[in-house]
């Protein structure tokens, strides 16, 4: 059986050939026969020209589900060409959190028109979600859920469920509410099915439940789901009123977004850039980070220029000094990655940061000694200069020490300043290890060689 990636490429090849031949009817049939998520994946995997051609072939009643499965930038590219009537039709039947995600990308006047077209119940559900930032539990939650009262029997609950055409997606529990919709318990559907129908909800429900407040960050929500193996979790306000629920499919999206953010940040790439972004959108985004990198490179070059006279006396220094900076950069990146990962998982705090710093410094010191002996020995044999070997080995040990120190404390400090450590940490770390590496190596050389 071909892998998912291979199958996608085969489908894209067939679609591309059919579009080039002008055979649009088979393409439309193929697209509209696929599940919404699969069609969305094909669109995301297509270059812009082909993407627009495929979108034009999708049935109007499928557009909403497909759009909800697309990343934000792709959603925006399709939404900007739609009028209000199309948007109203597109949002019909979508869950409240998906509608909120779409509306948040539109002008305020358009949002009001779309909301005004909904019935009061649907409008209230969407407005409940849209008032929260999209990176919080409130912005992530869906308001589609089933609630019951505690005094009724399980038989009544079962008859109530059978009146529904379908249950909300990923429904593993029914929420038990009191007056003013205060959450008082959870009735797992598995428990409902195996319990005596004559029992009351109060007798069977679970009261030792973990709730999520609407203002906690989505990354914390993802950590809690992973830690507790949840399928869904209720979201409440500060007074304990049930607002909605978060399901595992939403959490998977958060995990994917966080992963992509970390990868993009380490390379200085904007989160708004997707694989097939246009040239005009991509160039300015990357240009900013190339400019920042140029500034850091000029700072490193300035530190070298301070020792220009020493380099003229001992030409071997120019050959060997990139080794010191490179080893420091790699060691620092290893530490930085470990720390940023620990911070993302909520593992690092005031109580263990000092232990982590001590460990990283010791690790770098040991690695520094080992590789300093290797490189120093090679330098001594190649250049027949024991002093040069001592300078190189000492500089490497000191720069790896600096790398461990900065790699640990830099992301912690950036987070306290509300600066994304994944975005800024790599650039700053490279600058520090380059400057310190060159300065230590050439400074020692100046001392020993006069």
Secondary-structure element order, N to C: HHHHHHHHHHHEHEEHHEHEEHHHHHHH
Helix count from the secondary structure assignment: 22
Number of strands: 6
Question: What is the first-to-last residue Cα distance?
Answer: 69 Å
- Low-pLDDT runs: none
Overall residue-averaged pLDDT value = 84
How large is the radius of gyration?
Answer: 29 Å
Share in β-strands: 5-15%
User: What is the topology, as strand order, of the major beta sheet?
Assistant: 1-2-3
| Spatial shape | globular
Main sheet characteristics: 3 strands, mixed
Would you tell me the structural class of the helices and strands? mainly alpha
The portion of residues assigned to helices is 55-70%
Map the helices and strands.
Layout: H1 4-21, H2 24-33, H3 36-44, H4 48-56, H5 63-68, H6 72-79, H7 84-91, H8 96-103, H9 108-117, H10 120-130, H11 137-140, E1 147-148, H12 154-162, E2 173-177, E3 183-188, H13 189-194, H14 201-204, E4 212-213, H15 218-228, E5 232-236, E6 242-247, H16 248-266, H17 279-305, H18 308-313, H19 316-344, H20 353-383, H21 386-416, H22 421-449
Parallel strand pairs: 1-2, 4-5
Antiparallel strand pairs: 2-3, 5-6
Helix pairs in contact: 7-9, 8-10, 15-16, 16-22, 17-22, 19-20, 19-21, 19-22, 20-21, 21-22
């Amino acid at each position: 059986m071909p892998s998912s990636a291979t199958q996608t490429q085969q489908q894209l090849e067939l679609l591309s050939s059919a579009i080039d031949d002008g055979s649009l009817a088979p393409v439309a049939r193929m697209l509209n026969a696929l599940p919404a998520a699969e069609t969305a994946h094909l669109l995301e995997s297509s270059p812009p020209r082909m993407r627009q051609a495929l979108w034009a072939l999708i049935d109007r009643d499928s557009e909403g589900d497909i759009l909800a499965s697309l990343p934000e930038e792709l959603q925006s590219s399709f939404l900007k060409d739609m009028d209000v009537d199309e948007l109203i039709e597109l949002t019909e039947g979508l869950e409240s959190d998906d509608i909120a995600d779409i509306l948040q990308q539109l002008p305020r006047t358009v949002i009001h028109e779309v909301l005004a077209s909904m019935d009061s119940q649907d409008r209230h559900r969407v407005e409940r979600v849209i008032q929260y930032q999209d990176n919080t539990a409130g912005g992530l939650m869906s308001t589609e859920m089933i609630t019951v009262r505690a005094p009724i029997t399980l038989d009544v609950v079962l008859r109530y469920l059978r009146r529904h055409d379908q249950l909300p997606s990923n429904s593993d529990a029914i929420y038990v509410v009191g007056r003013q919709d205060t959450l008082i318990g959870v009735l797992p559907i598995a428990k409902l099915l195996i319990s005596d129908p004559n029992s009351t909800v109060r007798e069977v429900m679970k009261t030792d439940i973990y709730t999520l407040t609407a203002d906690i960050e989505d990354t914390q929500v993802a950590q809690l789901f992973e830690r507790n193996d949840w399928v869904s979790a209720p979201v409440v306000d500060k007074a304990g009123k049930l607002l909605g629920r978060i399901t595992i499919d939403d959490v998977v999206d958060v995990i994917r977004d966080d992963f992509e953010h970390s990868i993009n940040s380490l390379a200085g790439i904007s989160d708004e850039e997707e694989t097939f972004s246009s040239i005009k959108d991509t160039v300015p985004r990357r240009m900013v980070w190339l400019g920042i990198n140029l500034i850091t490179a000029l700072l490193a070059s300035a530190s070298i220029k301070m020792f220009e006279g020493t380099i003229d006396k001992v030409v071997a220094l120019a050959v060997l000094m990139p080794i010191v900076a490179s080893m420091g950069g790699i060691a620092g990146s290893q530490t930085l990655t470990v720390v940023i990962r620990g911070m993302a998982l909520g593992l690092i705090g005031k109580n263990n940061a000092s232990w982590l710093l001590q460990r990283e410094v010791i690790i770098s010191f040991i690695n520094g000694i080992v590789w300093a002996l290797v490189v120093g020995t090679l330098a001594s044999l190649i250049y027949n200069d024991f002093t040069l070997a001592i300078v190189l080995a000492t500089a490497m040990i000191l720069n790896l020490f600096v790398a461990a120190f900065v790699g640990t404390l830099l992301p912690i400090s950036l987070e306290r300043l509300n600066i994304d450590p994944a975005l800024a940490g790599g650039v700053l770390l490279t600058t520090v290890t380059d400057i310190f590496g060159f300065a230590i190596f050439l400074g020692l050389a100046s001392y020993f060689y006069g």
